[in-house]
Design a protein that fits this description.
alpha+beta; 14 strands; globular
């Protein structure tokens, strides 16, 4: 039976097969029996590499952070995570620079994490979403439609699943939609951050 350590674009932590291309964490979320007992522990929600300097981690080791897995970076961003400054230093610097360009001021990891925490949660375990015109959304953003998460990419929308993108729809030119990716992250994507997307959408 799969562990409850996969994360959907809605930010939910679920038990699904397949590991995903991106790892991340929100602190220690599991107990000694590897059961998820909290939604998050810290404001610093990271998206990490699955391999780094040959380090081999024991998944959900007691008293250590909970390894979470995402289909791809776009999924991690939709859930409210951002690039790790250690294992993905170049991506973090690029993200931080574009963030500063969007907001017009120097930024730190703490400032980014505080704003992301506000943008991703409307309450305890309640994801914050907002409405926008589909035509204005950049590639890599996620929207919700028909009780599913859809990736915006080019002139298409791709339906998320744990193992890859399983459905493709043409992207309409206009129409208001519910956006899953935090507003501040969408601004970074619009400013030119090229988010990594699972090859099933290529």
């Amino acid at each position: 039976m799969p562990l409850q350590n996969r994360v959907t674009p809605f930010g939910e932590i679920v038990a699904l097969t397949g590991r995903g291309l991106v790892m991340g964490n929100r602190g220690i979320l599991h107990d000694d029996t590897r059961r998820i007992v909290r939604y998050s522990q810290v404001q610093r929600w990271l998206a990490c590499r699955t391999e780094f300097r040959g380090i081999r981690r024991v998944i959900m080791r007691p008293h250590s952070y909970t390894e979470l897995f995402f289909l791809d970076e776009a999924t991690a961003f939709a859930a409210g995570h951002r690039p790790c400054a250690e294992c993905r230093h170049a991506d973090y610097r690029r993200f931080r620079t574009l963030w500063a360009n969007c907001h017009g001021e120097p930024v730190s990891a703490d400032l980014i994490d505080r704003q992301l925490h506000y943008d991703r949660l409307a309450g305890r375990r309640v994801k914050r979403v907002y409405r926008a015109d589909l035509v204005d959304l950049p590639d890599g953003a996620y929207i919700a439609a028909d009780n599913r998460a859809w990736l915006v990419s080019g002139n298409a929308l791709f339906g998320w699943s744990a193992l890859g993108y399983t459905e493709r729809r043409m992207r309409s030119t206009h129409g208001e939609v519910e956006v899953l990716t935090p507003r501040s992250t969408v601004a970074v994507l619009a400013a030119g951050y090229r988010v990594a997307i699972h090859p099933s959408a290529m």
